[in-house]
Amino acid sequence: MTLIDDERTAHRHDEGAAAFQALATAAAGWGALRAAVELGLPDLLPDAPTSVPDLAALAGAAPTRLAQLVAVLADVGVLALDERAHVRHTPLSRALRSTDGLPLTRLLTAGWADEAWRGLAEGVRADVSPLELVHGRPLFALLAADPAAAEVFHEAVATGPGDPFDEAIRSALDLTGAARVADVGGGRGRLLAALLREHPGLSGVLFDLPEAVRDAVPELRDDDRVEIRAGDLFADRVGAADVYVLRTVLHVLDDAQAVRALANVRADAPAHARVVVVEALSDDEAHRTYAAHSSLRLFVLCGGRERSTAEFAELFDRAGLELRSVTPTGTPYHLLEGAPRLSPRTDG
């Protein structure tokens, strides 16, 4: 080996060490964030800058150890330290509050969800959701048995205030000529409520599991244009509509389940109906990082994944639908629009 070879090897090792250090730093930041949530720091920290000892007293924590934690939280932007080393809020710490924070942060930092990552290696080996391996049952069985976890989950996946993609998705959704829209797997119905506000001539159906629709937004419960239907997408019928919207529903399902869900919608769809699936695409180069990270989180929590355009076309076809268009929204999400296939499927 020459001196040049030695230098190249040393350079590669230096690059590897730097990359590893960056990941280790990120891991420490995530661990610090989880600890901050468990200690209740986003809720306990007053609006005015507060000394570490005073915050420690509020949290029931050791001041010296809390100072170590706060130093990392400030480094990653969860909290901030002023010139007097007093702790103050950041936009992220406010988003982590249990009352008025962003629901998705409460899901991703929930103990039962975070613990699922311990099963990732075995899940990759066995092709089983890590959450199921760690907790002994799949996600929706866990939610059915744990109302507190179900509350966190359904609030996190609901659209509405705080959802950075909601307006762009609604703007891209073409409801021309539609009189009735079905929000399939719509949770608490915030998407449907927004669509009905924007299109007063519409009527709508909110369809989801009983534990999701029982907390439907009051705006829908008080609207005589709306039918709230509790049911199982694999077994119960959605009913007739002009447009069916499935927003981030299929990515929590495996391929066979996704086909069953689409076929169930297809069974009630009139010939003129449109089925609009809203999902991130794994082959969208502009949002590749988002899709990759989202896909891994889905696998950890429920065995799901993000799919490519071609994979969605195959799912549509197997369910008796024809994928006719893919509309970008300027966000990681696309609108994949299909229609009932009128001619029989021909294989080969």
Quick structural summary:
It holds the Pfam family Methyltransf_2. With 348 residues, the protein is an alpha/beta fold. 49% of the residues lie in helices and 14% in strands.
Secondary-structure topology with pairs:
Layout: H1 3-39, H2 41-44, H3 52-59, H4 63-75, E1 80-81, E2 87-88, H5 91-95, H6 103-108, H7 111-115, H8 120-126, H9 130-135, H10 139-145, H11 147-157, H12 166-172, E3 180-184, H13 190-198, E4 203-208, H14 210-213, H15 218-221, E5 226-230, E6 243-247, H16 255-268, E7 274-280, H17 288-302, H18 309-318, E8 321-328, E9 333-340
Parallel strand pairs: 3-4, 3-6, 4-5, 6-7
Antiparallel strand pairs: 1-2, 7-9, 8-9
Helix pairs in contact: 1-4, 3-4, 10-11
Domain O-methyltransferase C-terminal: 117-321
Active site: 251
Keywords: Methyltransferase, S-adenosyl-L-methionine, Transferase
Task: Describe the structure in your own words.
- The protein is α/β, with parallel strands linked by helices.
- It has three domains: 3-96, Winged helix-like DNA-binding domain superfamily/Winged helix DNA-binding domain (Arc Repressor Mutant, subunit A, Orthogonal Bundle), CATH 1.10.10.10; 103-157, no CATH class; 160-283 and 302-340, 3-Layer(aba) Sandwich (Rossmann fold).
- 49% of the residues lie in helices and 14% in strands.
- Helix 13 links the parallel strand 3 (180-184) and strand 4 (203-208).
- Helix 1 packs across helix 4, helix 3 (52-59) packs across helix 4 (63-75) and helix 10 (139-145) packs across helix 11 (147-157).
- The longest helix is centred in the N-terminal third of the chain and has 37 residues, at 3-39.
- The protein is globular and about 70 Å long.
